[in-house]
Write a structure and sequence with these properties.
By secondary structure, this protein is an alpha+beta fold. It has one domain. It is 33% helix and 21% strand. It has five helices and eight strands. β2 and β3 form a beta hairpin. α3 packs across α4. The longest helix has 12 residues. It starts with a helix and ends with a strand.
Length: 143
């Protein structure tokens, strides 16, 4: 039953949600820049900068590094949740202050992009993690 419900976006999915299906593991690897990548880089950069106009390419790159450094532990899950919830901040050197970073637009769901893939894994070089990962206004689901 899981296969039928989650292989493609459900008919119960609100039509305003923009789903993109990545049909192959190779596509997902390319989009996330290899096995050590945790986000679909171009999508992440585009969405973060769209939702947070103050985010420069350098700041966005640093944010990706932070996300990729999150440990695969219960504490890491909390840290990832804090990012998704908008509780984490970045220091903006040009403004000399910290700013909240929005990963998702909860007011207008159409501003978000969701990607579904059959397989999403991540390795930190020592351990490979398979599972579900959310980032930016992009959802990556491993089935």
């Amino acid at each position: 039953m899981k296969d039928t419900l989650f292989r493609t976006p459900s008919s119960n999915t609100p039509p305003e949600i923009n789903w993109t299906c990545s049909t192959s593991i190779d596509d997902a690897l390319t989009l996330k820049g290899g096995e050590t990548g945790i986000v679909f880089r171009e999508t992440f950069i585009s969405q973060i900068q769209k939702l947070n106009p103050f985010m420069s390419p350098d700041l966005t790159g640093e944010l990706i590094k932070r996300m990729e450094a999150i440990p695969p532990t219960i504490e890491g899950n909390l840290l990832a949740w804090e990012y998704l919830k908008g509780l984490k901040q970045v220091f903006v050197p040009d403004e000399k202050r910290e700013r909240d970073v929005r990963f998702m637009d909860i007011q207008d769901i159409a501003n978000n992009t969701f990607h579904v893939t059959d397989e999403f894994s991540f390795t930190n070089g020592r351990k490979t993690i398979r599972g579900m990962s959310f980032s930016s206004s992009t959802a990556f689901l491993s089935l």
